[in-house]
Every structure is written in structure tokens, then in C-alpha cells.
């Protein structure tokens, strides 16, 4: 479970400061599926980076299961990221010279998993996203939707408890968007992940059970009755 208390994030801009987050209080229970939306520059990516331990708050605390991520040493924070948090980005971030299989295996290297087990687990992860037969393909030989599914396999192969996605369908056409969202939702349900997703897509936001709207660095959370993962991937 995440507990954020009065989280402020400022960035230097010349002599001035940009206040990207202005005192966020937010609790994200285990197994939650939270969608973050809001206008450009509202602080969505900044919040996701703090949840992922990719950056630290300027003030306040970001606790994951009782540990204040901002107080960990760089080495410990890296360990938490490697073990517990899977990331999926808009731009896939696959290594172009590695095959799908090798890309997925890279997530297990920092955890000290041996070669044979890496191979097996990466194969299983690719199978779970329906890409077993594409394991030997390079990213350039895959469609956008398939590349994002490789990225999902890479995020999940380490069996994290948290999955963070920043505009995971932003680079995809509508059909592929549905394919990728369907995959993310299936994995969220099957693995009991805590799933936090930033999206500009209002159709996706409407289907979230909990919606966090970030505007000018402030958050408002709404529960949406009737929304949920069971509805399938509608595109209207
Ligand atoms: N590394 C940085 N250095 C300086 N300012 C930054 C940095 N990252 C973000 N900002 C600023 O912080 C504010 C929030 O940015 P953030 O990227 O979190 O917003 P966002 O809601 O994700 O926007 P978008 O929808 O455009 O991705 C913006 O004013 C942005 O310019």
C-alpha cells in the first residue's frame, strides 16, 4: 500500500522554481487500479516517478508498505525498484539490438537470477502475454502492440507487486490500444497487482474504478460506481 503525505515536488527553472506537486495526500491500497488523468503539465508523470522511486519528493513522504522511499539510500531504492515495481512507458523502451526474450531477461539481471532461470522465466512471461512464438524477434520486427506486450512481460517477469504505466497506449492505434489495455487489465486481475496508470485517454479514464485528477499540482480522487475491469476494452 502506498501512503503519500503532503508531497511537494519542485524543480529548479533558472533562478525560479516550478511547483509540480503542491501537497499531495493519497492512499493507494494493495490491489487497487488507479487511473491518473489531468491537463498537460498537471504533475502526472512527476507523481508516477515518485511512486516508482525514480525521483524523490522535495517535501512530505511517499511510503510503500511502511517504507519512506525518500529516505532510502540510492542502493536500497534501486533494489526496491528492481524487486517490487514494474514500469511500462509510452515509448516501450525496449533495447533495439536485443530479441524479445533478451529484453525480458534484462529485468532479472539486477536480481541475480541465474542464466537458466532467467531464460525459463522470460519465456513464461512472453507466453503469458501471448508472444511465445515471437521470442526470437527484434523489437523492429514486432508491431507496436506486440512491442508494448514485450514491455509488459519485462515489467512483470520479476513478479512485482506494483505496476506503473505512463501513457502505455499513447503510441498505439485504437486496435492495438485495446489489445494492450486488455493485457494490462488481465495481468492486474490475475496477479493481484497494485496498478497505477497515467493516461490522457478519457475513454480509459471513464472505466477506472478510482480516478485521480491532477491539476496544477493538486489531486482529487473520485470513485466511479459502475466502472471496472470487467467491461472489456471499449473504445467509444
Ligand atoms: N525535470 C524537470 N525539470 C523542470 N521542470 C519539470 C521537470 N519535469 C517536469 N517539470 C515541470 O513540472 C510540471 C509537471 O510536469 P509533469 O511532466 O509531471 O506533468 P504531466 O501532467 O505529466 O504532463 P504531460 O501530460 O504533458 O506529460 C510542469 O510544469 C513541467 O514543466
Strand percentage: 25-35%
The molecules bound to the chains, other than polymers, are: adenosine-5'-triphosphate
Strand order of the largest sheet: 6-7-8-3-9-10
CATH superfamily: P-loop containing nucleotide triphosphate hydrolases
In CATH, what is the class?
A: Alpha Beta
Tell me the count of domains: 1
Structural class: alpha/beta
Major beta sheet, specifics?
6 strands, mixed
Report the average pLDDT across residues.
91
Order of helices and strands: EEEHEEHEHHHEHEHEE
Shape estimate: globular
> How many helical elements?
7
N- to C-terminal distance: 32 Å
Number of strands: 10
CATH topology: Rossmann fold
Q: Do you know the CATH architecture?
A: 3-Layer(aba) Sandwich
Helix content: 25-40%
InterPro entries: AAA+_ATPase, ABC_transporter-like_ATP-bd, ABC_transporter-like_CS, ABC_transpr_LolD-like, MacB-like_ATP-bd, P-loop_NTPase
Keywords: ATP-binding, Nucleotide-binding, Transport
Domain ABC transporter: 2-234
Protein name: Peptide ABC transporter ATP-binding protein
Structural overview:
One of its GO terms (molecular function) is ATP hydrolysis activity. The longest helix is centred in the last third of the chain and has 18 residues, at about 175-190. The radius of gyration is 18 Å and the shape is globular. The chain starts with a strand and ends in a 13-residue tail after the last strand. The protein has seven helices and ten strands. It has helices at about 45-50, 75-85, 100-105, 115-130, 145-155, 175-190, 200-205; strands spanning about 1-15, 15-30, 35, 60-65, 65-70, 85-90, 160-165, 195-200, 210-215, 220-225. Helix 4 (about 115-130) crosses helix 5 and helix 5 (about 145-155) packs parallel to helix 6. The strands form two sheets. Strands 6-7-8-3-9-10 form a six-stranded mixed β-sheet. A four-stranded antiparallel β-sheet has the order 2-1-4-5. By secondary structure, the chain is of the alpha/beta class. About 40% of the residues are buried. The chain has a single domain, classed as Rossmann fold (3-Layer(aba) Sandwich). It binds adenosine-5'-triphosphate (ATP). Adenosine-5'-triphosphate binds near residues 13, 38 and 41.
Amino acid at each position: 500500500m502506498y501512503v503519500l503525505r503532503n508531497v511537494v515536488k519542485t524543480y529548479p527553472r533558472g533562478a525560479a522554481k516550478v511547483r509540480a506537486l503542491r501537497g499531495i495526500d493519497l492512499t493507494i491500497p494493495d490491489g487497487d487500479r488507479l487511473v491518473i488523468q489531468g491537463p498537460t503539465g498537471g504533475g502526472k508523470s512527476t507523481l508516477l516517478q515518485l511512486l516508482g522511486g525514480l525521483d524523490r519528493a522535495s517535501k512530505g513522504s511517499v511510503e510503500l508498505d511502511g517504507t519512506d522511499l525518500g529516505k532510502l539510500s540510492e542502493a536500497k531504492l534501486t533494489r526496491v525498484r528492481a524487486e517490487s515495481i514494474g514500469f511500462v512507458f509510452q515509448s516501450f523502451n525496449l533495447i533495439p539490438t536485443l530479441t524479445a526474450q533478451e529484453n525480458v531477461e534484462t529485468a532479472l539481471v539486477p536480481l541475480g537470477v541465474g542464466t537458466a532461470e532467467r531464460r525459463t522465466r522470460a519465456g513464461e512471461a512472453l507466453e503469458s502475454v501471448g508472444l511465445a512464438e515471437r521470442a526470437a524477434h527484434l523489437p523492429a520486427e514486432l508491431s507496436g502492440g506486440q512491442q508494448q506486450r514485450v514491455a509488459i512481460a519485462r515489467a512483470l517477469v520479476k513478479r512485482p507487486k506494483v505496476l506503473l504505466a505512463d501513457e502505455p497506449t499513447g503510441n498505439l492505434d485504437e486496435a492495438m490500444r485495446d489489445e494492450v489495455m486488455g493485457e494490462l487489465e488481465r495481468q492486474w486481475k490475475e496477479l493481484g497487482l497494485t496498478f497505477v496508470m497515467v493516461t490522457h485517454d478519457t475513454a480509459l479514464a471513464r472505466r477506472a474504478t478510482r480516478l485521480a485528477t491532477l491539476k496544477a499540482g493538486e489531486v482529487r480522487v473520485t470513485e466511479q460506481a459502475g466502472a471496472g475491469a470487467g467491461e472489456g476494452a471499449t473504445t467509444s
